[in-house]
């Protein structure tokens, strides 16, 4: 290599965390190694794995990096990406003890951005025009509302009468993934304070973190950036407002934010007497009650799927360039996040010769946009020289359903990945804690 | 016991935010009197106060047996305080029941026959406090109507969608329209989904406008200087009315209730007159699209009302009660013909221009002499101003422009019996079978007679007329590769083995002699329409796996609320 300060190779260690993401990138320099952890979370353990698999992973990370991490990336605030950072579980302390110098998170996690707390009743306009700063604050408010809704969804899923077991499990799974994850968030913030915190958005460059490694942030776009590619701008402020008040209302409802809590028409106890109980539903209404529960469960599922995508789209997308080699780590970004990058011709040129692609969102269909997949020039048959490598951390049967074509990993996508790339999935090496992939530059 | 056909019930005129002299505006509606079980549970409506969010059943409301001296059941809520009404779950249940029954009664009055729910049961079940969500919808699958409740934006109050007259009437109309035209929930053009929304808005708004005591109070509510027994003429110009309390409620609660249906009902009347809404594709979302229809019909209404008001009062002032009465009477007439127009609409793939012709025809049939209101001419103009060109040119002979023409075909009648054709679907099918060429039936399609309904009305000469309204429907499912045989062009990216269903069908109206008077509909064999429809549906992702065949009304709301977020995606993936 021409640049003597650049790494000569890298090892990508893909941990088997069941449904979740955890990647340790080791950049091998002539003078020693540098370590970067991309996500450390899980919502469902590997099949037949030990109970304390996350702790084992944490200890392995510590051992691999010999007690010192250079960089930690938390792509977005979903439990399956950051649960390991929680200090409540203990694993968070392991990572904190590795004293990362740099902590990278999406702009939506910037604690400073939230200081001007807004309520759903304050305006997004300044001098009659939509104000991007106010909109940003409102958007962050919506994310908070969504986490409140997730809380309500989890509570709802615990009611055995609420829906069938399958639906309840989907509700619980998606709900829990979207909870606030406060302990992990706080730990990441603390680590960022001790080292240096980066709250990134599309277009930023993080080239000074690792010598000889160019890191471009392709996402998430800020609202202003997204606005630039929006189709119908005139409707935007109105629609934004609808979005904002919708989630505010859902958040309030889920938080039972009312003077009388959730006691809607509940009879109050009078002196010396217990509150009368609600009557037992008579036979003539039971069919309708059952249907009502089904419909409501379906509504909840739609709601939580919707907010889950919004959260996924706050994912940091990182493109690493080392000489001519390119590695792409998009977290769980879906099309709305990707659109900004895919609208930038300079970036689509860069994306064309990606060598290693971390499959987005555990192999869900909408996290690998067709327009992105089409760009990859290195895909092709087994005999292709320098064939694209794809790494997928996932566990089937947890997210979405085959019936609705939303299962994760999506079988259609997996077929395509197997056909046209060197495809590796954590589902295939359930007995190992991790697998290493060697990349020579 | 003497029989009393109706009973009175106190309801809120609009919703709890609309007050006059610091009291919530309310009035008594007259609804069919019937034997009621606790619920209330009557022969068409059964209120089931179940809350899915909290999993709690509030129990059926007991029916008070108070009768006044003449034996008529008393209005249980007359004279009660606002606070007592608002916190009484029983009042919520009764008000919901009352508006549904009132809306049903209006439909039955307009059509002169009983109307069935589309799902086969006699009783629709209704949850007035269905869930904690700013949503309300009709579900045919659950045979019910759902009304959510939700916290106000400041979290200090609870807002009940069941206490909004407009929302209850709107959802009830969805259910009734589904009973009359069950194929309008099929995937079709944006206008078909828009029609359901727009029509529900029109009926809801006209229901409110047809109560003189409400119109009287709300017409200049909040206008500075407005008070007393008269109304200033300047407060009754079309522009002032468009922005009045009746049509442009901008109060705090009004705007929060807007979370349920969006602003459409309140604002559509102020929609700028433009003739390219339907062609530009900018209003493809169901509520947005429906708004265009609402704007056309209600602006015509305002024009006529103001025109009528010229005849009363002086230059400065008009008598309040008289002005309101004019408005209410007109609303009643327009509501009746709007409902009646459904009989003159094609059973599948409806577009606004079909409804325009249907409405003009229905009114012409019902009120041939239009000199008093000049309603049809004003409707015709308003439709065109919003780019809705009546499907039929009309205007030949003694017929008015825009109305449907009688069929030119000579049908064969001699193989069927008219008497059984008035009620028997199989007999009617035989009639179709014998005339399949004239009805442009596709020989490979599945054909079904959806309904045959006898219909009574009073003719122009005062005599009773017996007409028969029938509708049939055809559907043809084939592979995309076979479409070209029909001359239909499949969307370029659609795989050849995609299963595609095409619809067609007619509404046939028979006169008192059993002859076809109108034959209104759409044949499957219309290449242009089918090509356009498939292109639109393909673009909407309706053929993707997992896309539900029919997106329920419950989901329309969620999609609308999150549109801002979706509008970013770069084209179809």
Characterization of this structure:
The complex is a heterodimer of chains A (441) and B (573). With 441 residues, chain A is of the alpha/beta class. Chain A has a single domain, classed as Metallo-beta-lactamase, Chain A. Helices cover 37% and strands 19% of the residues of chain A. Chain A contains 13 helices and 15 strands. In chain A, helix 4 (132-157) runs antiparallel to helix 5 (165-177). The N and C termini of chain A lie close together (8 Å). Chain B has helices at residues 82-86, 89-111, 165-180, 190-209, 212-218, 238-242, 252-261, 264-267, 277-280, 286-309, 320-341, 352-366, 375-385, 418-421, 425-434, 527-539, 553-561, 563-566; strands at residues 6-12, 19-20, 23-24, 26-32, 45-47, 50-51, 56-57, 124-127, 136-139, 144-147, 149-151, 158-160, 230-232, 317-319, 446-458, 464-479, 499-510, 516-522. In chain B, strand 11 (149-151) and strand 12 (158-160) form a beta hairpin. In chain B, helix 3 crosses helix 4 and helix 11 (320-341) packs across helix 12 (352-366). Chain B is globular and about 70 Å long. Chain B has 18 helices and 18 strands. Chain B is α+β, with helices and mostly antiparallel strands and 573 residues long. At the A-B interface, helix 8, helix 9 and helix 10 of A face strand 6, strand 7, strand 11, helix 17 and helix 18 of B.
Topology:
The complex is a heterodimer of chains A (441) and B (573).
Chain A: E1 9-15, E2 19-29, E3 32-44, H1 53-64, E4 71-73, H2 79-82, H3 91-96, E5 102-106, E6 125-126, E7 129-130, H4 132-157, H5 165-177, H6 182-194, E8 196-200, E9 214-219, H7 223-228, H8 236-254, H9 283-312, E10 317-322, E11 325-329, H10 335-342, H11 345-352, E12 356-358, H12 370-375, E13 389-392, H13 411-420, E14 422-425, E15 434-440
Parallel strand pairs in A: 3-4, 4-5, 5-8, 11-12, 12-13, 13-14
Antiparallel strand pairs in A: 1-2, 1-15, 2-3, 6-7, 9-10, 10-11
Helix pairs in contact in A: 4-5, 4-8, 4-9, 5-9
Chain B: E1 6-12, E2 19-20, E3 23-24, E4 26-32, E5 45-47, E6 50-51, E7 56-57, H1 82-86, H2 89-111, E8 124-127, E9 136-139, E10 144-147, E11 149-151, E12 158-160, H3 165-180, H4 190-209, H5 212-218, E13 230-232, H6 238-242, H7 252-261, H8 264-267, H9 277-280, H10 286-309, E14 317-319, H11 320-341, H12 352-366, H13 375-385, H14 418-421, H15 425-434, E15 446-458, E16 464-479, E17 499-510, E18 516-522, H16 527-539, H17 553-561, H18 563-566
Parallel strand pairs in B: 5-8, 8-10
Antiparallel strand pairs in B: 1-4, 2-3, 6-7, 9-10, 11-12, 13-14, 15-16, 16-17, 17-18
Helix pairs in contact in B: 2-3, 2-11, 3-4, 4-10, 4-11, 5-11, 10-11, 10-13, 11-12, 12-13
């Amino acid at each position: 290599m021409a640049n003597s300060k650049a790494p000569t190779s890298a090892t990508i260690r893909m941990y088997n965390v069941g449904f979740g993401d955890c990647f340790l990138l080791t950049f091998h320099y002539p003078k020693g190694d540098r370590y970067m952890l991309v996500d450390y979370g899980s919502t469902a353990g590997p099949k037949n794995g030990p109970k304390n698999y996350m702790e084992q992973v944490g200890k392995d990370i510590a051992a691999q990096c010999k007690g010192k991490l250079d960089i930690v990336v938390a792509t977005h605030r979903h439990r399956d990406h950051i649960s390991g950072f929680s200090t409540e579980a203990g694993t968070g302390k392991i990572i904190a003890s590795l004293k990362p110098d740099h902590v990278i998170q999406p702009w939506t996690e910037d604690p400073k951005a939230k200081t001007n707390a807004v309520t759903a009743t304050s305006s997004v306009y300044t001098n009659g025009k939509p104000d991007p700063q106010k909109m940003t604050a409102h958007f962050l408010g919506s994310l908070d509302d969504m986490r409140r809704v997730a809380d309500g969804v989890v509570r709802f899923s615990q009611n055995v009468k609420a829906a069938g077991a399958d639906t309840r499990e989907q509700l619980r799974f998606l709900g829990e993934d979207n909870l606030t994850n406060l302990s992990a968030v706080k730990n990441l913030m603390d680590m960022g304070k001790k080292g240096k915190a980066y709250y990134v958005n599309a277009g930023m460059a993080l080239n000074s973190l690792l010598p000889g490694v160019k890191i471009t942030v392709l996402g998430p776009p800020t609202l202003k950036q997204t606005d630039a590619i929006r189709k119908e701008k005139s409707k935007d402020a109105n629609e934004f407002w609808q979005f904002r008040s919708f989630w505010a209302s859902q958040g309030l409802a889920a938080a039972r934010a009312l003077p009388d809590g959730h006691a809607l028409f509940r009879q109050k106890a009078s002196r010396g007497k217990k509150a009368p109980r609600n009557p037992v539903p008579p036979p003539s209404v039971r069919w309708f009650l059952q249907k009502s529960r089904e419909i409501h469960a379906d509504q909840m599922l739609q709601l939580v799927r919707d907010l889950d995508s919004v959260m996924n789209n706050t994912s940091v997308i990182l493109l690493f360039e080392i000489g001519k080699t390119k590695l792409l780590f998009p977290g769980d970004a879906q099309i709305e996040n990707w659109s900004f990058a895919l609208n930038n011709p300079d970036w689509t040129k860069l994306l064309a010769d990606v060598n290693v692609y971390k499959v987005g969102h555990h192999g869900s269909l909408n996290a690998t946009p067709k327009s992105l997949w089409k760009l990859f020039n290195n895909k092709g048959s087994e005999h292709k020289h320098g064939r694209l490598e794809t790494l997928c951390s996932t566990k089937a049967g947890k997210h979405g359903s085959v019936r609705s074509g939303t299962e994760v990993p999506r079988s259609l996508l997996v077929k395509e990945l197997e056909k046209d790339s060197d495809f590796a999935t954590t589902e295939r090496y359930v007995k190992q804690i991790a697998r290493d992939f060697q990349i020579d530059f | 016991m003497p029989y009393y056909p109706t009973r009175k019930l106190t309801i809120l005129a609009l919703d709890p935010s609309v007050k006059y002299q610091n009291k919530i505006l309310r009035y008594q509606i007259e609804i069919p009197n019937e034997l009621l079980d606790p619920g209330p549970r009557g022969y068409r409506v059964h209120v089931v106060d179940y809350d899915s969010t909290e999993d709690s059943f509030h129990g059926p409301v007991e029916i008070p047996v108070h009768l006044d001296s003449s034996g008529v059941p008393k209005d249980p809520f007359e004279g009660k305080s606002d606070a007592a009404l608002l916190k009484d779950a029983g009042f919520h249940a009764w008000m919901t029941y009352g508006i549904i029954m009132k809306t049903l009664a209006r439909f039955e009055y307009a059509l002169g026959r009983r109307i069935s729910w589309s799902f086969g049961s006699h009783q629709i079940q209704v949850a007035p406090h269905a869930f904690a969500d700013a949503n309300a919808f009709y579900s045919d699958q659950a045979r019910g109507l759902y009304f959510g409740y939700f916290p106000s934006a400041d979290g200090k109050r609870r807002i009940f969608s069941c206490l909004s007259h407009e929302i209850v009437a709107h959802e009830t109309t969805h259910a009734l329209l589904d009973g009359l035209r069950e194929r309008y929930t099929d995937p079709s053009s944006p206008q078909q989904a828009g029609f359901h929304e727009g029509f529900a808005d029109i009926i809801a708004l006209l229901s409110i406008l047809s109560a003189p005591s409400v119109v009287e109070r709300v017409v200049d509510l909040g206008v500075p200087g407005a008070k007393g027994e008269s109304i200033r003429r300047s407060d009754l110009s079309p522009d002032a009315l468009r922005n009045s309390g009746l049509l442009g409620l901008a109060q705090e609660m009004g705007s929060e209730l807007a979370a349920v249906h969006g602003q459409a009902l309140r604002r559509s009347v102020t929609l700028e007159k433009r003739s390219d809404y339907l062609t530009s594709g900018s209003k493809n979302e169901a509520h947005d699209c429906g708004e265009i229809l609402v704007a056309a019909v209600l602006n015509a209404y305002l024009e006529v009302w103001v025109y009528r008001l010229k005849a009363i009062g002086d230059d400065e002032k008009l008598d309040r009660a008289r002005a309101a009465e004019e408005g209410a009477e007109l609303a009643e007439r327009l509501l009746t013909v709007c409902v009646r127009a459904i009989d003159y609409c094609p059973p599948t793939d409806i577009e606004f221009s079909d409804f325009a012709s249907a409405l003009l025809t229905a009114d012409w049939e019902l009120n041939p002499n239009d000199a008093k209101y000049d309603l049809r001419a004003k409707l015709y103009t308003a439709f065109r101003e919003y780019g809705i060109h009546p499907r039929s040119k009309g205007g030949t002979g003694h017929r008015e422009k825009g109305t449907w023409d009688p069929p030119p075909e000579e049908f064969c009648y001699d193989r069927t019996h008219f008497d059984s054709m008035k009620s028997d679907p199989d007999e009617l099918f035989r009639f179709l079978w014998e005339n399949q060429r004239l009805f442009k039936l596709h020989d490979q399609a599945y054909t079904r007679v959806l309904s045959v309904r006898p219909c009574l009305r009073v003719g122009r000469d005062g005599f009773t007329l017996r007409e028969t309204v029938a509708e049939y429907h055809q559907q043809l499912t084939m592979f995309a590769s076979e479409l070209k045989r029909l001359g239909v062009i499949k969307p370029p990216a659609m795989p050849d083995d995609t299963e595609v269903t095409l619809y067609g069908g007619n509404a046939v109206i028979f006169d008192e002699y059993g002859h076809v008077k109108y034959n209104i509909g759409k044949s499957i064999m219309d290449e242009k329409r089918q090509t356009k429809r498939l292109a639109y549906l393909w673009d909407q992702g309706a053929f993707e796996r997992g896309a539900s065949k029919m997106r329920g009304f419950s989901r329309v709301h969620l999609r609308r609320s999150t549109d801002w977020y979706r509008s970013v995606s770069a084209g179809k993936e």
